[in-house]
Specification:
2 helices, 48% strand, 8 strands, 14% helix, Lipocalin, eight-stranded antiparallel barrel, 133 residues, mainly beta
């Protein structure tokens, strides 16, 4: 009898530990207005680079830093979704006097957590941590 209870308890624990199903990224799921931070994902530290707003509508996006630390740090262009990754293609011309790595441009892995969207740059350098408005 004791071993049956142990087995039932173990099954209950394993069932409770099931991972959530992966959220499939679609252009429709990305639609909306977001605010948040761009974060530098360094080897030993993570630091906030700046506040940002991002608008995604249709197959287009626009992002801009809301702090004056990156006056030229805005992006505007189109995006595509491919295997739960989003590829942003910036169509603006930029000056050379700032860190282009912070621009929303290139390939990003996506992660949804409730009303939050996390975009991790494929080279691991920056991530956008955004909350849907």
């Amino acid at each position: 009898m004791f071993s049956v209870l142990v087995i039932l308890f173990a099954v209950a624990i394993i069932s409770a530990c099931k991972k959530d199903a992966a959220t499939t990224v679609t252009p429709e799921k990305l639609q909306g207005n977001y605010t948040g931070w761009v974060v530098s994902d360094g080897i030993e530290t993570v630091s906030i680079v700046g506040n940002v707003s991002v608008q995604i509508s249709g197959g287009n996006y626009q992002s801009a830093f809301t702090s004056s630390s990156f006056p030229a740090g805005s992006s505007k262009g189109s995006f595509t979704v491919n295997n739960n990754q989003v590829v942003f293609v910036d169509s603006l011309a930029h000056t050379a006097n700032f860190n282009w790595g912070v621009l929303l441009n290139g390939t990003y892995a996506t992660q949804f957590k409730g009303d939050s969207l996390i975009l991790n740059k494929s080279d691991g350098s920056y991530s956008y941590r955004l909350k849907k408005q």
